[in-house]
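Copper oxidase
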Amino acid sequence: MVESPDIPILQYVYKKGIKFFELVAEPVRQELLPGLFINGWGYNGNIPGPTIQAYPGDYVSFRVINKLPESTSIHWHGLDLPNIMDGVPDVEPSPKIEPGHYFDYHFKIINPPGTHMYHSHFNSIVQQMMGLGGGLIILEPYPNHIQRDYFIMLGEFALKGLEKGEVKPGVYEIDPKSDMFNFFTMNGRCFPFQTPVEVAYGENVRIRLTNHMMDAHPIHIHGHQFCVSGSDGNPIPYYNRLRRNTILVASGEAWDIEFTANNPGIWPFHCHIPHHMANNFSEKTGGMFTTIIYKME
């Protein structure tokens, strides 16, 4: 199974060969740093929403309940499915979900194992930037060489009511139409409030990265080189894999990277844009930043 630090795994009920999931789009008060909250929009009380895991060949049904003050939808980003289930009501036969109503998205998973995401595709400039997104992982149904498998969704928010450099407890509103972002997150939290990525010496580690928001983020690992093993949910053959230590994760992209934990320590794993490595331009390290920590055996 895939671990998504600080994000729950979405549970399901299995009936008559179908996996039934439920997602509730609703206002969410999310804690970015201790005592510092945002009023955003998310799924099932979380930003990002809970991580979905399924297998190739699964028949799935997602009941999406709308508790937002406006209509919404969900787009299953990168999945091959019927047009009516794709979740873009402005241009497709897929319906918008009115406040207080629900819609059941149902389809068969026909994509290969890989990393995907889901997000709103209605009034996207507001709803996506308020936090309406989450991860969707198609799992490998057979044993593989990976011992630790992590999912990380990148995020960014323009918080109102703070002076530049100011980081103090409180509850803040998001300006979804601003591109002056001042807080950057991994799995909905800013460093050092995140749960680190834990590994043990000798393990083969996969980290899955997705981004449904606006900025592109060059994600860099310290102390290791990695191979790029997946792109937008599609596996990359071994003979075509690039060996790197930085990968640009643009809006709409999903990347899988793999490395061997062979250099013990506490290593940074972060966006390399300087402004994104701080909380509201403050001096201390923060923002879109986490650590890879070797466990003591």
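thats it. The first strand starts at residue 13 and ends at 15. The chain has a mean pLDDT of 97. bye
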